[in-house]
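Section: Multi-chain targets

For targets with more than one molecule, the full set of components is provided together so that the structure can be written out for the assembly as a whole rather than chain by chain. Components appear in the order listed by the source. The example entry contains two components.
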Amino acid sequence: MSDRSIRDPQSRRLQAMGSLLAWAVYIFLLAPIVVVVPMAFGSPNELSFPPSTYSLDLFRQFLSSPAWTGPLLQSAKVASISTVVVLLVGVPAAYGIARFRFPGRGLIMGAMMSPLVIPSIVTALGFYLYFSYLRINGTTLALVLGHVMHTLPYVLVMIVAGIQKLDRNLEFGAQLMGAGRFRMFRTVVLPQLVPSLIGAGLFAFLISFDEVVISWFLSGPTTATLPVKMYSAIRWEISPIIAAVSTLLTGISLVVCLIMVALKKSTPSAG
Amino acid sequence: MNRAAELRGAVAFVTPATLITLSILAAPLLYIFYTSFGGPDFSFRAYSDLLGSALFRRTLSTTLIIALSASALSLVLGYVIALHLARQTPRRRSLYMVLVLLPFWTSVLVKCYAFTVILGRSGMVNEFLTWVSGSQVQLALILNRIGVLIGMTNYLTPFVVFPVLASLMAIDDSVYRAASVMGAKPVRIFRTVTLPLSLPGIIAGLSSVLVMALGFFIVPALLGGPRDAMLSNLVDFYTRETLDWSMAAAVGVLLLGMVVLAIAPLSVLRRKQS
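Its structure, encoded as tokens over all components, is:
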């Protein structure tokens, strides 16, 4: 399109207008982050943008208040355990799905991927009713189980994509040399999968750490996660501390996002 | 590899995840259906009560209106960005892509909090308008329909950008050249070439944001008023406020049905492509 646009003044005008519109949309998309982050470094006594003075007071208040650090630790705990469990279960499953054809494969995959399209509120309600029946509602166990199912589809997609890039002949070779199925998996497949494993693990951790709806239904008074605490805080009081929490969440997202981009670049086959 | 060995391999690797999926995911979902029909004493009570309830009928129409408008808005905004990205050199494109990815990764709670600060009664927008006009302006921009639509559109737009960009990039440049050589003006080229050829991306994007929009919970709860409650909020209301689990489950089943209908065009499209 470029050669044409240079000649035609009308299309150049339209392109300029398109760019202007696009920038307006970029600004709209970024507005929440651009506003919240500077506010987090403002003073605890005023809620204004841009802040008149800058300090770390809001972060200090956040980290010295047990009402916030409890949920922060709980989120870290739930996200870490869920990530370990979902990798332990999801990575072998992804290998089985990527490498074998078997009856019921489509059905099993469909069931595992379904949380991607089922509204979180519906899965959350299902967990809530079912876990009430099992009498584990409000426990960390319930949260972990919910988050494992919620993150499993993302792990499957990423690991299946990683396995499909591997050379299957190495696996056949190892088995011909007498390695059992699991030994081959451990010594041949897993070492080659390390970038995908890190990527999927980070992704699962971030999704679990940020998840609100399922946690809102499954957590109890002592097991509330950071997003649950934040949700009720925004609902009932607009405290400036929330700006600091928001900045922390955005920072974690940014770090995970950057690591993923770096991983993608360092994987030669992903070129 | 022979069939028996293949089956043994599959069983060994897939069984743990399958068991967990059946017992922790499929069972709860089936349990919703069971609960919606009154549990052990089977009845349609919850469904007939719902259909007779003015609250439910109002929430259903609110949900449809909000979900459709938010999807349409995000489609327009997402398309504008996708067009802009498609025109860039690969280097610049990956740079601008960060401007879409960063909001994409931002927690919905952070967005809602930010919009209460930006759009509130004495928020940035009203402060600015007060300063410009010289008199006190206090437009109600949150805790109403406007707030919900702004918050949802902000969240959903990136999900439109990715599929639309993919189909724009797949259009062969020579089609544009041909259209231009034949004397088509830019607006006509957009209407007769760009738009029809990006239709798969539009359908994919629209269908996926509609599915998400139907189930929105956080945004209407935090940025909407009582009249902007969506079906998700009704599920929460029946579960926690009135403790009527059958009603909550029945709303959940209906919401699930709506999502299946919304996703149908997407799966038809996928089947056609493969």
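Chain B is about 80% helix and 0% strand.
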